[in-house]
Amino acid sequence: MAAPSMAAALAASLPAPSAAPAPAAPTYEAIPASMSKVIDIEAEIPLTAVQVDGLVVTKIIKHSREAYGSTAHGILLGLDLDGTLEVSNSFALPSHASDDDDKSAKGVARYQAAMMRSLKEVQADDSIVGFYQAMTLGSFFNQTLIETQAIHQERLRHGGIVVVHDLSQTARGNAAFRAFRLTKAFFDAFKRNNFSTPSLISHRLTFSTILEEIPIKIRTSPLLSSFIETLTDATVRAPAGANPAAATSSAALPPSFDVLNLGTSSISRNLEHIIEAVDAYKTEEGNLGYLSRQIAREKARADAYVAKRKEENAARVAQGLAPLPEEDVSRLFKIPPEPSRLESMLLLGKIDAYAKSLEQTSGTGLVKMYGVKADSST
Amino acid sequence: MPLNAASSAVYIQNTAPGFISTPGRAPTSVTVHPVALFSILDHYLRRTDTQERVIGTLLGTRSDNGEIEVRSAFAVLHSETEEQVAVDMEYHRTMYELHHKVNPKEVIVGWYSTGSNLNTYSALIQNFYSQETAPHQAVHLAVNTGAQEGEQTGVKAFVGSPVGVFPKPENCVFVPIPCALRFNDSERNGLDLLTTTASAPNTSVSHPVNDLEVLERSLKSVSEMLDRVLSYVQSVLSGEVKGDAAVGRYLMDTLGSTTEDLEKGGFNSALQDTLMVSYLASLVRSQAEVSARLALVTPV
């Protein structure tokens, strides 16, 4: 499987936590009083928000769109300040299409290191704060994402974040970005690599508690703002009474109305995705059921053996004979370990995400349809 | 551009195909994607105090009709002094290889610099990039960030032509070619997001926004547009403004279509389908939630 090896390579390339750069605090300079509150070398101020730069927004959208089909992923760079993680740059990682796991994993690590070195030379931020991933129709749960994030959470300052970008929602007119990190409970279970039922119960894990969402903010630098302003200027300037045709044609960035598109083509695809996910879940449940039946069978056999031996011993004692030694049952019967429920949990999460996006699409669809209807009835 | 009047014999090389040894056509127009533009602006923001301007490499694709699409850009180290200009070629190569791995389709198409003054150094850098893009011609994108007083924000594109009796690398005529901003649908929506951000009070908005909110915003803007059209039409009717025939035709085309067919064409059944899908989605979600909870029940 490509996932663990890639994750391992990523881990190798990441700086150890102690070596994580302490961003805003050069020790040789006196820290101004206004800043002393927000400086935390030990990363003690918890993250409460993520701020994504306009550049990163366009970069992620571009990469996601071009890598349609295969999942696009890349590294986020930035700094944290007073509980806000500022993501100021990002770069794409080459997709590991080839099945040469070990080689590609090493390649990714080398790529990442080289890119960081290069970016540092042009004064760009060069500390990794997380990674991004593209998704379609709201589903981003998979093993790779969880593993990569787990590694980040261990190594990066503040644990790092993952930003997901929904391609299909963007196509519908709402460019959507969300930031997540693993919850403590899940991370704990993951570190022990224990996803048996008792572990899930003790950690109170369901698919909705795997990741916690961090509020995200989009920011544009003043320079970028002014540039965008120039682009949209023509539409703003058009006075109410002026020639409307001339007003829109001169704008470099005319308004778009993708949102108002009544087409519901994505719904059928969404439904297909749900069916696929449900099928996969069914298979996974079947496997789990089979395994637990096997466990139950082995346990029953072991119990029967123990009971039989006890009976025999009781009979021997009654006859005045020395009892047979109690043998180690676990050696005679191999009880398979409790199966991991991680995969089924992730699949459930996937189903939920698909259903949620379907809910949203159909919800807005209804609004639009009623809008059209009201229009046509008058 | 050292094209002084004293030189009597000016020799501008023809950029027509076949005349020089460039296969395909010489660049006729440049389209720039927002990613490239924003990268340039970001690079400009991160320049050091001593840097007057920053330069970098443009990556993109060439089409057969001479149109160049600039799809991304990366910063390149360079230093300019009174006597000399130096571009870190090693760095440029490394970066290009890195970018090439992620996106093999994008090749070097030229270079950018901020500020709109073209000087001897620009010609030298242009010469360097022409070698990189050979056998094609390199384009130069001059991005004026508008940060200096009295300068207009804008993007200009140029191709270089050798000039002089004996073409020398430091002499060059920059011939302007048309340049446009290009984006596709998904980038478009990302830009919308940034546009709302840019106009927000402290240039940051919280995210993610609900689909319905976006819908509401669009509906409002449509309704504003309708109001604008209405007021225009009314002022025409009342004779305040002379009607424009072109506008009238546009309005006819846009508003002339009726929605009556919708009633006949199974609109209601589509509505019911959508409702059903919406119910189904909630059902699936609650089922998933129940299954997740059931997994937590201790087996007896």
Automatic annotation (TrEMBL), chain A:
Its main location: cytoplasm. SMART domains: JAB_MPN. GO terms for molecular function: metallopeptidase activity; translation initiation factor activity. Residues 50-186 form the MPN domain. It is found in: Cytoplasm. GO terms for biological process: formation of cytoplasmic translation initiation complex. PROSITE patterns: MPN (PS50249). GO terms for cellular component: eukaryotic 43S preinitiation complex; eukaryotic 48S preinitiation complex; eukaryotic translation initiation factor 3 complex. CDD domains: MPN_eIF3h (cd08065). Keywords: Cytoplasm, Initiation factor, Protein biosynthesis. InterPro entries: eIF3h (IPR027524), eIF3h_C (IPR045810), JAMM/MPN+_dom (IPR000555), JAMM_MPN+_peptidase_M67A (IPR050242), MPN (IPR037518). Component of the eukaryotic translation initiation factor 3 (eIF-3) complex. Belongs to the eIF-3 subunit H family. Component of the eukaryotic translation initiation factor 3 (eIF-3) complex, which is involved in protein synthesis of a specialized repertoire of mRNAs and, together with other initiation factors, stimulates binding of mRNA and methionyl-tRNAi to the 40S ribosome. The eIF-3 complex specifically targets and initiates translation of a subset of mRNAs involved in cell proliferation. This is Eukaryotic translation initiation factor 3 subunit H. The lineage of its organism: Eukaryota, Fungi, Dikarya, Basidiomycota, Agaricomycotina.
TrEMBL record, chain B:
This is Eukaryotic translation initiation factor 3 subunit F. It comes from Ceriporiopsis subvermispora (strain B). Keywords: Cytoplasm, Initiation factor, Protein biosynthesis. Belongs to the eIF-3 subunit F family. The keyword Transit peptide does not apply. Component of the eukaryotic translation initiation factor 3 (eIF-3) complex, which is involved in protein synthesis of a specialized repertoire of mRNAs and, together with other initiation factors, stimulates binding of mRNA and methionyl-tRNAi to the 40S ribosome. The eIF-3 complex specifically targets and initiates translation of a subset of mRNAs involved in cell proliferation. Component of the eukaryotic translation initiation factor 3 (eIF-3) complex. GO terms for cellular component: eukaryotic 43S preinitiation complex; eukaryotic 48S preinitiation complex; eukaryotic translation initiation factor 3 complex, eIF3m. One of its GO terms (molecular function) is translation initiation factor binding. One of its GO terms (biological process) is formation of cytoplasmic translation initiation complex. The keyword Protein biosynthesis applies. CDD domains: MPN_eIF3f. Residues 30-164 form the MPN domain. It is found in: Cytoplasm.
